[in-house]
Amino acid sequence: MTMKAYFLQTTGRGLHLDLREVPLPSPKPGQLLVRIRATSFNRGELLGGFGAAKPAGLEAAGEVEGTGARVMGRCPGGFAEYGLMDESDAIAVPPAISWEEAGAIPLAFMVVHDMLVAQGELKAGEWLLVTAVTSGVGVAALQAAKALGARVIGTSGSAQKLERLKALGLDVGLCTRQPDFADAVMRATGGRGADLAVNNVGGTVFAECLRALGFEGRLATVGYLDRVTKAEVDLEALHTRRLRLFGVSNKLRTAAQRARTVQGFTADFLPLFAAGRLRPLVDRIYPFADAERALAHVQADAHLGKVVLRLE
Question: Residue 118, class by beta-carbon neighbours within 10 Å (0-12 exposed, 13-18 middle, 19+ buried)?
Fold first, then answer.
């Protein structure tokens, strides 16, 4: 049997999605064959050039073949009619969550759980700073932080997007793409500084994030949208203010370590989704056949929240 699947590749005209007919995957022990109903774009997958074409998509939601169970989770090659999901990655989809929402949840909110809860130890009443708060992970961080009772400051180059995020509870929006926001963070927090900062941008704002932290503040490095991977560290600030710096990445983690993130998400966030206290912000839904148009929308940075592909 065969199925349709998209592959990411770069050509002289840039990054695009190539639809191919490929064999239906066969699950190995510990894997599930999932009929995919929805999947979504993740910015990190689109950064950088590629050599040979690679299967597109990193997450999906759908029905397990043979049981019909509704699941969502990590799913390499998720831009396809069927995908393989490790049993340890499969998360039950609450009845109140649509396929389109489920396809937008797993990666962003598992990253957010890692940085806000597992490592960031964010508590109710604390101040969270999110750079590039209008990105997919940034919006998810805002939503989860508000559900946890925290107060949120976000930076973005788009005043219009920041205004829209006020409806999701954004307390302070700082319209900037430059490393010039620490003083504004201090004013907003009454001189306290941020308890936890999330750096989605990269090296250009790393030092400014440190400046924005208060006593015993924590800094999560999540991504490099600016492609700058080096930055200076103020050792005196790190020492005297007892700061804690940590990274959020799955690249070198074992399957068991990744499974712990799934377990943490399931324990702490899944009940919030089931109760309607958390909902992913879905910017736009495209039919599977319109994946190229969806990619163009993402690359134009015209979205706020997640861009989803729906399979009939």
Answer: middle
CB 218 within 8 A of CB 115: no
State the Cα–Cα distance between residues 92 and 199, nearest whole angstrom: 30
Domain that holds residue 39: 2-105+280-310
CA distance 25 to 167: 42
Which is it for the CA torsion 184, 189, 193, 195, positive or negative? Answer: negative
Residue 151 lies in a domain: yes
| pLDDT one-digit tens code per residue, 104-163 | 999 999 999 999 999 999 999 999 999 999 999 999 999 999 999 999 999 999 999 999
- Looking at the fold, whether 124 and 231 belong to one and the same domain comes out as yes
Q: What is the dihedral of CA 174, 177, 183, 188, to 10 degrees?
A: 20
Overall number of domains in the chain: 2
Residue 30 is part of a domain; what is its CATH number? 3.90.180.10
